[in-house]
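Figure 2 data, in text form.
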Amino acid sequence: MLITSIIIFAVVLLFTYPRYLELISDNNLGTNYAYFFDKVSDPLAAVQVNQETHGGKIDFRFTVPLLAKILGVSAHSNGHSVIVIYLIQSALLVPFLFMLMKILLTRLSPMTTLLLVMGSSTIYLAKSFFWDYDFWFDGFAYFFLAFGMYLKNRVGVFLTLTLACWTDERAVVALASIYLFHLLSESDFDLQSFRQFRGKKDWLQRTSSIVLLTGASYLIIRALLASLFGLHTPTGTGSGVELGLIPYQLKHRLSGVFLTFEGLWVLFLFAVGLLARKGNLLLALSLLAIMAGHILIAYSVFDISRSLTYAFPLIIISAFIISKHEIRNVKYLYAAAAAICVLLPTQYVIFYPRQIPWTILSFEELKPVIKLLLL
């Protein structure tokens, strides 16, 4: 599986231009992205920047700035040392793919696992590890979320999910789907009533309970930091984070829903339909409710694809639900899902759909980077 992960990593790199390399030629990097370097030098200080920008919303995003601080990244020498952080994020795609395959192989056949991973590698989920040039670091968050699904050790789950939450607040929302994943894993993916988990003496020993503990501890610590250091995430009119954006964006940017997962929506919708037909409305409604929550949050900000991709655990849950019911010729369902993902050019939506360029077709963009590296 490691070799397969490395091969898929190479394929993703060939078809995803790592735009962060262009930062090497930015002689004002330390000034243009001062908000990030300020966060690195003083993590507990409130960021002073336009609240509508991405930089205005990183007060509680500590994971990557702390990593940068440990590695000695600073604004000195034009801040080019930050490229190391981007290279680490790209390298994390290999263990991400490895864990994804290991998770899927617990219930899926090697063929369906490969098809699902192939589909995942052609959408923003995998491409985010390379297509990052504005200090988003979604790849770090997706990696930690997948790690929290892969591990069964309660301490490990707590630590990895905590790192995800402090990377981006959208990971906190993803805890709902990861909680459902672990809850279903503990019951052979059979959820008829939440009462079946009540009154059990070993509740606190369950992995699923640790997911809830992670969310609770995050909220408590966040409230304390806000009170002690004046940190906050801007919301409301003019902040770029407001519920009032939802009607307009759903009307004009509805394509963002489909473009986030492309063919993988086939698996999600099939799983929900299958559950409804089998009479398991509780689980079907749980999947729909969590996905609806992700969609509403994604449409309350401008970077729709980035935000909605945090719902990727629901795609894994959907695949496991399908496998539990032993559908005949299911490989064709996965083949169709993967084919849609592979054949459609990858686009992500921020204000409007934008196509992610291929590295193999970006020689002109790479020439100045190569020259700088050879000098």
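Caption note: The chain has 20 helices and two strands.
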